[in-house]
Amino acid sequence: MTIKRIFDFPKHALENYPREDMFVTKYNGKWEKTSTQEFHHMANRISRGLLKLGIKPGDKISLITTATRTEWAVMDMGISQIGAVSVPVYPTISSEDYDYIFNNAEIQYCFVSDRDLLDKVLKIKGNVPSLKGIFTFDQIEGSANWHEVLDLGNDDSTQGEVEDLANSINSEDLATIIYTSGTTGKPKGVMLTHHNIVSNVLASNPRIPRIKGLEYSDIKILSFLPICHIFERMLFYLYQYNGYSVSFAESIDKMGENIREVQPHIMSVVPRLVEKVYDKIYDKGTSAGGLKSKIFLWALGVNKAKQNIGKPSGLKEIIADKLVFKKWREGLGGNIITLVSGSAALQPRLNKMFQNAGIPILEGYGLTETSPVISVNSFGKIKVGTVGHVLENLEVKIQEDGEITVKGPSVFKGYFKNEEQTKEAFTEDGFFKTGDIGHIDDEGYLHITDRKKEMFKTSGGKYIAPQVIENQAKASKFIEQIMVVGDGEKMACALVQPDFNFAGHWAERKGLNIGNTTAEMANSTELKERIGKEIDYLNTKLGNWEQIKKFELTPEAWTIEQGILTPTLKLKRKALKERYIKLYNKMYGHQD
User: Fold this and answer.
1) Contact residues for 131 (Cβ-Cβ < 8 A; gap 6+)
2) Could you tell me which residues are beta bridge partners of residue 456?
3) Which of 87, 159, 208, 245 shows a CA-CA span of 20 to 30 A to 575?
């Protein structure tokens, strides 16, 4: 069959790859499988139930889950095949943003996973005239459950209406509105058509490796990134297109347990997760003590010295792999073919280390507005430090100021109810302005160097690209997060969130008392001096105008809930500066 709409992917899977474990979710400690046939049966019931609720093509339905689960997948197909528009929302954003999104999109019904999200939506329900009802996936006393919609659709005599609506849906029709969390301002509703997403899935599919000896029925996926993010959602359709089994992780906290249980072949990751995985491996390896720690550190040295990415060659590399890196792969379930990384820049040092440990990472690049993939590395063509080659169906143009612009079928149709912002997002010749700075090298690999809007100029007129410096700084074991500042100031400075866990272990080994709370640690002279050495080393690799002249340690970890990180763990620079304005003023000698 020809795939033109997002609901064609599960239909394609039913025709070509029927399986007993199309989707797998853990409920009450037990993994429960949903077959391809049962999935379609449930999606059709949802479609019929929504029609009985009065839903028409173009109506907006919101989906919010703390963790992705089979119910989300069922709702996605049930909504899309009758021409309604899904509006997935991040569970972690503020009630104020919920209020804005629900009113802007004119949400008619909302489906949430649990009590916390129900309470969050109930707080703003009275402010949203269009909202007719809220359904929950969990059984919650006193609330309407999604099974009520399923039950409404039990009568299959109206299935013909569902089929007629599905057949009438054009590939250029609106499929979803995804509100970008953004690092500043109100969320923007990115309108993506069926064609936008389908074209991106089909163009990205050749970049996923095919391994000899493995059939589609063997491949297992562990999905844990928020499916409201277009990166995970596009992959969600790609997995259906290939007939893979998708298990939904319970939470990031239970990732280790879920990986051991599922033993996945492919997982998508964000750079911060890769960093955390490595930190955990490093802490375990160095704290083992004695010969074990010596072997671990020796193996890291062998890994670092390895010139060509690939299988171990030579006696040292083979021994290091058997003694150390084999355990890394076993820690990821033992079956990993590749990790697919997106959302932010991955440190080349870490990327190379995992590649050399036999855990290939396919780093890519894209935005919500591009559905999302613009470019991605592929097996046999991995170039560390780049985001790979541009997809074959896209055209990328680097503007005179270095901004990456793109044109093609996966570029969105515009921002919902915002013609002015839509117009501003494109060049006169129709290229979407990504806001990222980069270049394409002689081999055709795309390099991302910074965010255009995040570059700033010091009072001396020198431009500074903070992300480049920040990514280098986070190579330090002592630095969990860092934000380089200095727009309009005479010099670059930085706000630093230490890795408090690592700092505690370091102090214990050194016999130092740096306190027990994060606030006490941030005030520790010893810790600040030690991190100062890391900053001094970083400065040796920077131009004089880029060097960090002063820094302050923040007294707490940076979180999404504080409103200073986006749901994909990017820095909200304005909010960070406001939260730590006293520390900022201290560095520059400003009066509070």
Assistant:
1) 102, 107, 108, 109, 110, 125
2) 464
3) 87
Structure-derived torsion over alpha carbons of residues 509, 513, 516, 518, reported in degrees to the nearest 10? -90
Residue 43 token pair: 């999606």
CB 281 within 8 A of CB 350: no
User: What is the spatial distance between Cα 278 and Cα 242, in angstroms, rounded to a whole number?
Assistant: 30
Using alpha carbons only, what angle is made at residue 527 by residues 524 and 530, rounded to the nearest 5 degrees? 150
Angle between helices 348-356 and 271-287 (to 10 degrees): 60
Q: HEC states along 149-179? A: HHHHCCCHHHHHHHHHHHHHCCCCCEEEEEE
Copy the structure tokens of residue 282.
């490093």
Protein fold of 455-588: GMP Synthetase; Chain A, domain 3 (3.30.300)
Distance CA(34)–CA(20), nearest Å, equals 6
**How many C-beta neighbours within 10 Å does residue 172 have?**
12
Q: Where are the beta strands (DSSP E) in 65-131?
A: 85-88, 107-112
Could you tell me the fold of the domain covering 20-169+210-266?
Rossmann fold (3.40.50)
Q: What is the pTM of this model?
A: 0.83
How would you classify residue 181: left for phi > 0, otherwise alpha for psi between -120 and 50, otherwise beta? alpha
What whole-number distance in Å separates Cα of residue 343 and Cα of residue 366? 7
Per-residue pLDDT of the chain (592 residues; tens, 9 = 90+): 899 999 999 999 999 999 999 999 999 999 999 999 999 999 999 999 999 999 999 999 999 999 999 999 999 999 999 999 999 998 888 788 899 999 999 999 999 999 999 999 999 999 999 999 999 999 999 999 999 999 999 999 889 999 999 999 999 999 999 998 654 467 899 999 999 999 999 999 999 877 777 888 899 999 988 898 899 999 999 999 999 999 999 988 888 899 999 999 999 998 878 888 888 898 888 888 899 999 999 999 999 888 777 788 889 999 999 999 999 999 999 999 999 998 777 888 889 999 999 999 999 999 999 999 999 999 888 999 899 999 999 999 999 989 999 999 999 999 999 999 999 999 999 999 998 889 999 999 999 987 777 778 787 777 788 888 998 899 899 999 999 999 888 899 999 999 999 999 999 999 999 999 999 999 999 999 999 999 999 999 887 888 999 999 999 999 988 989 887 778 888 889 999 999 999 999 886 6
Domain boundaries, the chain: 20-169+210-266, 455-588
Distances (CA, A) of 124 to 95, 99, 144, 249, 567: 7, 6, 17, 29, 21
Interatomic CA distance for residues 365 and 386, integer angstroms: 9
What CA–CA distance (Å, rounded) separates 18 from 228?
26
Could you report how far apart the first and last alpha carbons of the chain are, in Å?
Answer: 65
Q: From CA 506, how far away is CA 235, in angstroms rounded?
A: 40
- Cα 32 to Cα 42: distance, rounded to the nearest angstrom: 15
Q: Maximum Cα–Cα distance for the chain, whole Å? A: 75
What CA–CA distance (Å, rounded) separates 278 from 253?
15
